[in-house]
Design brief:
By secondary structure, the protein is α/β, with parallel strands linked by helices. The protein has ten helices and 16 strands. About 30% of the residues lie in helices and about 20% in strands. The structure holds zinc ion (ZN).
Length: about 350
Amino acid sequence: MRRSLLDPWLAAKMGLPLDRLCPETVAAWQLAALRRTLAHAATHSPFYRNHLAGMDFDGLRASADLAAVPLTTARDLAGQGQRMLCLSQDQVARVVTLATSGTSGPAKRLFFTQEDLAATLDFFSQGMATLCGPGDAVLVLLPGRRPDGVADLLARALPRIGARAVLPPENWDPDLLTGLLVSENVTRLVAAPSQVRILLGHGAFSGAARERVRAALISAEPLGPDLRRAMARDWDCEAFDHWGMTETGYGGGVECAAHDGYHLREAEFLVEIVDPLGTTPLPPGEQGEVVVSTLGRRGLPLVRYRTGDAARMLPGPCACGSPLRRLGPVAGRIEITGTTYRLVQPDKGRAQPCSSFSNS
Ligand SMILES: [Zn+2]
């Protein structure tokens, strides 16, 4: 089995020899990057100057110290997004507006610089190299055709690994896609589970897919084991699940050939699992809330941002040979009432806040 391609990529980004890449060296590198992020945010953003006031950033030396760094929420982003920004508006390349999950309050606005978008392009090409390579034609069904949207970024990332994107008209139906599979000799697919469900029920598409589509990247909604099995059975297609959200610049982590959790963009994000009722990071294996900090984003840094997703970290090593931890599947959304919390299962077919699907 091939080792996750993210490992050599991460090692290069962190300036570590590949044989020194391990959970301890990654954690130390991330803490140093987070200290720099906190100092940058507190210096340049009115929100963070106040939010992080009095913190001793240099004292942040171990994962347990993270509990002292205050969390941020979707509500902060919706209400204070502009004040979180560390650069002037004219240095922002793309603004994405998202409804805030579970509230009728103001929408969240995300600000991305050219640097942030370049980092996503880089991750997309690395992630897609897990399942495709030179000569592959990739049918991209995720939305986001506008410049720097998801489909557009994928279409620009694929040529870097010798592959090309096939973008159907936005009002596609299964018959039209069946024609494209044949005429464009499509060999790979990028789709959301709700789209896959529609296509699995279509005989002609399934016949054409079985002949040529050997792998698919699945994103935007959780991929359950049943859908993964159906894709293997009906299309002879290996599904690689992807985790990400608009807040992480769309990409977050991707499965390797072991299909045992998401290998993460560890050089760009510090992902923690945190007690949903507190601020303490939980040990590997324990379920809690996924909390994300950006490491190096200069425009809109996120510091211990509560995603609302419930998951656990899978301790390494992975069966692919990587010693690094992976993020396990998202078990649901966390809903806090008073001093307790419960998990809410996302509606099938509804675009999720944890996804790149809701933004086009
Ligand atoms: Zn792996």
